[in-house]
Amino acid sequence: MVALLEGPVFPDARAAFFAAAPDPLDLAGAPAVDLSVRIGSLTLHTPLMPASGCFGPELGALIPVAELGATVTKTVFGSARGGNPVHRLTEIPAGMVNSVGIPSHGPVGYLATLHPRYAALDAPTVISVGGHRTSEYAPVVAALGEHGAAYELNVSCPNLDRDGTDIGSDPAAIREVVAAVRLVTDKPIIVKLPVLVASIAACARAAEEAGADAVCVANSIPAMPLDALTRRPILGNVIGGLSGPSIKPIVLRLVWLASRAVQIPVIACGGVGSVDDALDYFSVGASAVQVGTASFGRPFVAVEIARGLRQRCLDAGVGSIRELLELDAPR
Amino acid sequence: MVALLEGPVFPDARAAFFAAAPDPLDLAGAPAVDLSVRIGSLTLHTPLMPASGCFGPELGALIPVAELGATVTKTVFGSARGGNPVHRLTEIPAGMVNSVGIPSHGPVGYLATLHPRYAALDAPTVISVGGHRTSEYAPVVAALGEHGAAYELNVSCPNLDRDGTDIGSDPAAIREVVAAVRLVTDKPIIVKLPVLVASIAACARAAEEAGADAVCVANSIPAMPLDALTRRPILGNVIGGLSGPSIKPIVLRLVWLASRAVQIPVIACGGVGSVDDALDYFSVGASAVQVGTASFGRPFVAVEIARGLRQRCLDAGVGSIRELLELDAPR
Amino acid sequence: MVSVRPRSAVPRPQPVWDDAEVLVHEPVGERYRRLVLACDTIARTAQAGQFLMITVPPSGGDTILLPRPMAIHRRRPATPARPATAHGPATAATPGTVELIYGTVGRGTRALAAVPVGGNLQLTGPLGRGFEFPAATRTALLIGRGVGVCGVMGAAEDAAAAGIRTTMVLSGRNPQQLLGRTDCAELGVTVLEATDHDGSSDLAALKTRLLTEFDGTTPGRTPPDVVMVCGAGVLARLAAELGADWGVTVQASLEAHMACGLGYCHGCAAPVSTDPSVEGPLVCADGPVFDAVLPVV
Amino acid sequence: MVSVRPRSAVPRPQPVWDDAEVLVHEPVGERYRRLVLACDTIARTAQAGQFLMITVPPSGGDTILLPRPMAIHRRRPATPARPATAHGPATAATPGTVELIYGTVGRGTRALAAVPVGGNLQLTGPLGRGFEFPAATRTALLIGRGVGVCGVMGAAEDAAAAGIRTTMVLSGRNPQQLLGRTDCAELGVTVLEATDHDGSSDLAALKTRLLTEFDGTTPGRTPPDVVMVCGAGVLARLAAELGADWGVTVQASLEAHMACGLGYCHGCAAPVSTDPSVEGPLVCADGPVFDAVLPVV
Ligand SMILES: Cc1cc2nc3c(=O)[nH]c(=O)nc-3n(C[C@H](O)[C@H](O)[C@H](O)COP(=O)(O)OP(=O)(O)OC[C@H]3O[C@@H](n4cnc5c(N)ncnc54)[C@H](O)[C@@H]3O)c2cc1C
Ligand SMILES: Cc1cc2nc3c(=O)[nH]c(=O)nc-3n(C[C@H](O)[C@H](O)[C@H](O)COP(=O)(O)OP(=O)(O)OC[C@H]3O[C@@H](n4cnc5c(N)ncnc54)[C@H](O)[C@@H]3O)c2cc1C
Ligand SMILES: Cc1cc2nc3c(=O)[nH]c(=O)nc-3n(C[C@H](O)[C@H](O)[C@H](O)COP(=O)(O)O)c2cc1C
Ligand SMILES: Cc1cc2nc3c(=O)[nH]c(=O)nc-3n(C[C@H](O)[C@H](O)[C@H](O)COP(=O)(O)O)c2cc1C
Ligand code: FES
Ligand code: FES
Fold first, then answer.
1. With A61 labelled, which of A325, B205, B277, D73 sits at a CA distance of 20 to 30 A?
2. CB contact B298 to C (< 8 Å)
3. Where do the FAD-binding FR-type domain residues begin and end (chains C, D) (predicted)?
């Protein structure tokens, strides 16, 4: 890997956006807006973070990362993986489908190349960890040592010890993964659940009972985009993950069910691209949201949502999102 | 129930459409196009049929039903059910969400009221059968006696004997349902699988091994539409099934996986609204398609697709959809 | 409480699907749009209070999947060409048309608003069970609010044809937005305006006004023989109260989210069943017009 | 085979995001459209062969999620206002602009085509590692096909500024559709046209022609010091063959489906890795310009 950003910084075009961050002094007299959220021992000052795979330290020079609650890395696996053949992604109406396949340099490679660049950003780093057996997660977390502020366990990975169905579709497998990781770290554990499960409530409860500090609901939905003309699969891997606006109504239900099933915070992920999308998820029980697909076209969208949430609270004269939702909700 | 259509028929506005049916005499000299498909002992002359819940005998007066391969009834349950509270459906971008809740008069009520009207139509009737326990399906099929040309088992129903997860998400439960129904009928059995399953291949194989003649892939996807202004659930049941164009890329993958997993025909169902949608499904292995949501706005769409498939074969000078796809597919 | 009206002696017309040309499509005030569609069969057969399912064509990149239910505001059957006679000059044949008025509220009606004059709209109709005057009706009170006026205007047409003396309450937010004034004038219907603007649409105020208007003592002020209502649910209740007071039949047109409009999708069941194993009546097939009575306490 | 070019001594500019005004947006022939965007920083800093990620605004009901990668065809840095002098009249300041040319192929570029002059486009750039002339380059052969011409035009600009004698093959379906003639004339680049129309774009024909053109014996016909190519994959192979024949460096610009353009989404890895545990280079960050060599047999 060559380092991407070598040159001088020309901040002119970005000055206005960076400057737009609300000046704390302006708020004198206004109610104290508290958007902070606790994930285990970690407190995020705002409930906005990027979705795994949809953020990189390269963005540190383009957006005010300090205005995010955390950053989230692309999933790190135990061994080196090259990822999937081309094409690895495509856009379809109201969504994109990706089959990047999670190339990874393993935890050692990650710590050597990417982590220092994450650590240099002004937000806690959530390291996403993957595995193809329930036994593969804990060693990666252990190898990451004390790096990262929290771990997000991506269990939307085929379980090679069983029939290749996702680890996250099986509550027992989730339990095994989380229990093993709990033994090697005291840091917050987030379990990121897949969509294609018989019972999201059972999966979320398995994560909670095994010691997770939060669940993230959900990952992209497996899909198979075809070329309109040739009818051939567009993706080199044939199947990819559908993300973006079209999955939101599906994920809303999962977040609602999960947040009724567990006491730990539920982080919503799926099709968030606006303040209203975020508020929709908060209204069905989410404590925080992740932004994926929307940030490719609008790299600043998560920061904008964080600012927008604060502004809506200020405008409404309330101090928290919960109060805002109560106001919003007509009787 | 009052009978809906009491009055005289005014066929003028429909004459042109009915007349558009290709005249067999016109085809002299053209290759014989054979679109027929076998589902167990039943042969459909064309691979087009409506999706359960999206057709009624009322349409017999509006569209040339004889041009469909079959009709499919709304799901019949063993006991009377009133269905869900309002609203029962809504439209969202690229899809609709319904929580009708499958009101049913039970098999006896169905045979007394609806079945005679289906039987009067010029296409075989596939009766959709549902249940909330694996033991509930066979008695309904038995009660239907010799009526109907085939049975479609809707296993996207919460299993009240277990934790309320869908019967169709559990291969063992699918096996129980199909084996029990197989004992009470010799007619073709189609098993209609849900989307939210860990392994569609395992579910399809369970159906095949227990004696099903076809699988239908898939049902609508559970979702939770919120009112844009109030952020309250739109549906009386909070959760409904998402159907229409936005689920097609998700269902394409399921059809592809299912048709590689079993030898019996796979009937595709999800977002079909055009000849190309149908061909996309055929190209990933489907043998027939069902049309649901698209037919509300365009009641004649399934007939149009059936005609369009035949026309494409004629235009290409081939005799079957398989040959058409081979032509279409560039090397 | 609404209940399904007893089966009528008059058969209902068979719905057809049609590809109807848009003859007029224009704004009506600030909030509404008028559509005049050429559809002979429907113009000839539709009964008062019936509706259409309109398939909204895609607009921009937005595809509308479900057809939208719309009341048939006016029916104008085709007239044949007539040669000049001693009584008047020659007239050309006119096509049969129906007129709709709708408000743009969401994606579907916004896309509908983009359909050009000269374009075509696919539709199914006439649908549902409409209003029907009880035998020997001589006077009628119709109540419509907002676009609900369109739901009852067909009854005003029938009343005019049958010589039934009719009063119509036109209710709405403000005087500028009231629909139906010209139609009522054309049909010889007495209009009572009721607006939020001056408080006259307030339910209690309206009730008092109607009880005075039809006080039963002053000649020409006897209560109507039937009340027909379409609009907000609270108006149906008001009508039911008046009907109970006056001892006359009340017919109310309901709305529901619909997919098929024909009676098979079960999307539109009215929420009136108390037994969970029994479904409420279907607004599209058993209604949209129901008998409205006060719930028994 | 392509490989990542060795790290350059020249630092790459920091990408910025910008909200650039659309100054020109017009058809170019039948298939393409030209966009001129006001973006000072990018016009000043972009290197030859770099690209932008353009966020396509929603058009009609259609929202485009992923930004679209587009080569920077021309860079025109801002010029300050100049007072009249003995040498000439006063000139107004001009803003820094970049010019893009694109073909409308799918949803994204169709929606892009709807952006009006005077509107704004959000974009990130300049991105990627572009073309770089090896030290002491005196002559260069550039090859572009279709919109691929835009990928190499920046190198022609650099060559013109550095006094490098340049020939450019403009390849395309037919003479009317060839892009870049005016640019080449302005930059003093010798043009060789090659079209499918008359068969001159045929790979074998083109190769023979280029080998003759640069036969190494006739004076002024010595092989170029570097070959730079952008367009179809087969052209990169042709260029690599020529480079091998002539013993000179070949740089090829590749395309890939992209989401971020910055190097973190891994959507754009080139399919050149043979070891499944090793990822191919990222077209957006390690390229789009790579060294192209013939595979070792
Ligand atoms: C029998 C009947 C007659 C009607 N007549 C008229 C009329 O003459 N003029 C008029 O302006 N409106 C009429 N309506 C209401 C009209 O159908 C809705 O305003 C329209 O469907 C809204 O669609 P939308 O996409 O703009 O709104 P959205 O809110 O975006 O629609 C979302 C979904 O909800 C449904 N929906 C939303 N509001 C209603 C509603 N009030 N009734 C039924 N479905 C709704 C839509 O059909 C759609 O499926 C009538 C409704 C019924 C049932
Ligand atoms: C570095 C680079 C520079 C480019 N420069 C130019 C240029 O100067 N002029 C020009 O006309 N085109 C250029 N392209 C190609 C251009 O990006 C695509 O034509 C465009 O993305 C197609 O988008 P669409 O939505 O219209 O097509 P669709 O086929 O509908 O797009 C579907 C998806 O595939 C992607 N995609 C499809 N074709 C391509 C392609 N050829 N390259 C990359 N992604 C693709 C789209 O970005 C989108 O995600 C360049 C591509 C790259 C990678
Ligand atoms: C290009 C891309 C790469 C992704 N990589 C990962 C990943 O490495 N690990 C992971 O858990 N999720 C990954 N995801 C899924 C996202 O984190 C997110 O769950 C999903 O995209 C849904 O959110 P969205 O609709 O906001 O995009 C990826 C998504 C995209 C689009
Ligand atoms: C209004 C409505 C009612 C439905 N009722 C049933 C049903 O009774 N039984 C069933 O198996 N599927 C039912 N479905 C699901 C459809 O049969 C079909 O599987 C789904 O809509 C996906 O297909 P589509 O995208 O073509 O609509 C219903 C769908 C809709 C929209
Ligand atoms: S709208 Fe389908 S049953 Fe009434
Ligand atoms: S486009 Fe994201 S890594 Fe290249």
1. D73
2. yes
3. 15-133
